[in-house]
Amino acid sequence: MSNTRNTQESQSSQKSQDSQNSSKSNENRSAPKRPSPMEVLRQARGQLAELTGMEAESVSSFEQTEEGWALEVEVLELERVPDTMSLMASYQVELDAEGQLTGYRRVRRYERGRSDARRSGGR
């Protein structure tokens, strides 16, 4: 009788451990790995280039948001000679938490050789 009780307790303990291990492995599978900031930058540049047909020259703003990521990307829209007269654009790009582009919009166009007007307050 004692052996039967020990066997039942052992089986019960094993089932409990199997159940815990199973739930842990399911958690690992269901929670996707969040991409690193560098992976997000690369994905954003590539996805924007694919959608617009224009290569990103630089990323001037990058931040993590509650929904995912927000970037401002500088793009060469029209190449001119001399290069300082080329037409550039800033695009606001939004990505979800996994780094997939969810939206973009052009927020500014400017000549490469022009700087922003000085703002009050010395900025």
Structural account:
With 123 residues, the protein is an alpha+beta fold. The protein is built from two helices and four strands; from the N terminus they run ααββββ. It has helices at 2-30, 37-52; strands at 56-64, 68-78, 87-96, 101-111. Strands 1-2-3-4 form a four-stranded antiparallel beta sheet. A hairpin with an 8-residue loop joins strand 2 and strand 3 (87-96).
Biggest beta sheet attributes: 4 strands, antiparallel
Distance between the termini: 84 Å
Structural class: alpha+beta
Enumerate the strands of the largest sheet in spatial order, edge to edge or round the barrel.
Answer: 1-2-3-4
Strand content: 25-35%
Assembly category = single chain
Our count of helices gives: 2
- Poorly predicted tracts of residues: none
The pLDDT mean sits at: 82
Key phrases:
four-stranded antiparallel β-sheet, 4 strands
Topology summary:
Elements: H1 2-30, H2 37-52, E1 56-64, E2 68-78, E3 87-96, E4 101-111
Antiparallel strand pairs: 1-2, 2-3, 3-4
Summary, kept brief:
This protein is α+β, with helices and mostly antiparallel strands. The chain has helices at 2-30, 37-52, and strands at residues 56-64, 68-78, 87-96, 101-111. A hairpin with a 4-residue loop joins strand 3 and strand 4 (101-111).
